[in-house]
Amino acid sequence: MVSPAVAVLERxxxxxxxxxxxxxxxxxxxxxxxxxxxxxxxxxYVGEVGGVGYLAWIVPGVLASTAFQMAVGDSTYSVLGxxxxxxxxxxxxxxxxxxxDMVVGGLLYALLRVESAVVVFLVVAGVFGALRSPWAVVTxxxxxxxxxxxxxxxxxxxxxxxxxxxxxxxxxxxxxxSALFGGVFFPVDQLPQVVRPLAYVSPLWHGVELCRAAxxxxxxxxxxxxxxxxxxxxxxxxxVWAVSAFGRRLRD
Length: 252
Hints:
252 residues, mainly alpha, two-stranded antiparallel sheet, 2% strand, ABC_2_transport
């Protein structure tokens, strides 16, 4: 018998089968365009960063940023919509599917989407010669951890609000600053000292540094276990929040 969480995943995949064309550009084509425009185009003027070419330096940042943005995207409107407009979660609640199954199924769907995009991106980066270490093969694992660390709390947030206008606040004050100050396009140590904590509290920065350490074969700024631990804390706390918010919303 298929587990309830897998059944939730299957439902997400059935819906995605009808909508994949709308997300193909942002999931697969846009990151490659970023890689070419910033890594190759801007890289000609930047030169080297940290002793490596800008293309090789920016690849892990764009990869982690792609995982971050996809995790946010799959945990916002689709979650709120299944509560408020489609009421898909209410329909699931009338079946043997539990609240934890809904959350786990949603996280599995986000993971599949992120991993498929990351693998394609790694292949393209390898063709461009931007992978400098065999440790690059662990970047999908880092991307998966980052995706859960982001998707879980965002799912909790989405289940806690009643209007999609709150997503504008999430995008404007969390998503965009994380992309700007998360070490994606330039080293965080170039930021003023007072601004650097914005990077340190963002799961994206920790994901970027772990991916960069893997693709370049260098040590990250903090010990690996610290970066991974921060992401695990986000994932665990976010999962608890999501399960609690889902249960509370379904009882209302």
